[in-house]
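Exercise 7. Predict the joint structure of the components listed below.
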Amino acid sequence: MIAPPLTAERLLQSLSAKTDFRDGILGDLAEEYAERAESEGVSAARRWYYREAARAAPHLLLHWARRLRAREIRRLVNVIVAAYFLVSTFVTFSMLMAQKSLEMLGISASFLALSSSRAAWMSQIACAAVFAMMAGYCAASLDKKTPLASAMLLGVLWSVVAVASLIMSDSAYSPWYFLAATITMIIGTTRGGMLQVRNARFDNRQEYQEWRDKHVAS
Amino acid sequence: MAIPTLRSLELTVLLAVVRLGDDANGLAIRRDVSARTQHDYSVGAIYTTLQRLEEKKLVSSSTTDPSPLRGGRSRRQFKITATGQRALGEAQRVAASVWAGVGKALRPELA
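Solution:
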């Protein structure tokens, strides 16, 4: 049989914990993909699979969110807090190192400080995107059950906290900055989570062999 | 026991479960519903509806053995329950009641 695109299947799996609901959706998609690959060709079937995966993703996320219980929420909070502190420690350390290095070279590090110029805003947004990707990757690495859902949740919470602190600090940022920062953080963490899911296809050789036996050998 | 009310897609899916009988699995239900309504429902929308019907105890589900065709996953078979049958009967009664007399207004030649 022809196996569906592995990355898309892995991304769908990472959105929701293993339940009959998730397996039903992934199983149906795999079955129809195999039929379409035979009748319409692999390329058309792949396009169909990606489109259906995108349509199924919100349903999987909602199903997972509706079934969150106290224990699961505690686990998620642990993952998110750990990822946030790991990345913020790394970021703070990197910033300090960069500042010190520039000072040693005799270059002004004023562009690293908060400023209201458009260039400064753009560079801050770019830095936020990189940090968000790192945090998303980190959160997804720490969560084996629902890696992508954790990364996305981290993005949402992080952007809420960042926007709230900016509003409370009474700074001169325009509403566009808040919007850009929010979108950047959510997309950044999601992208980081997707990268992790794609890279961590198989935890070990045995898992890869099992997948191969199931999808390729038959 | 009160009979749960059915939304439009819930009614369509429940009717598909009855129509398909022993072949009522997610994929077959989606194909049946999409063909009859001429709307391409996503697999997620159908499963969300089936999940809701199961929570309302209108359908019950069982899983088959894992199949290589489904990437080693089981297939879920759905069956209507007694409550589901009562809900369908009630939906039919309500539909007949609200449509009564409308045919003549839409097509006066029937009068």
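Discussion. Residues 70-105 of chain A form the longest helix (36 residues).
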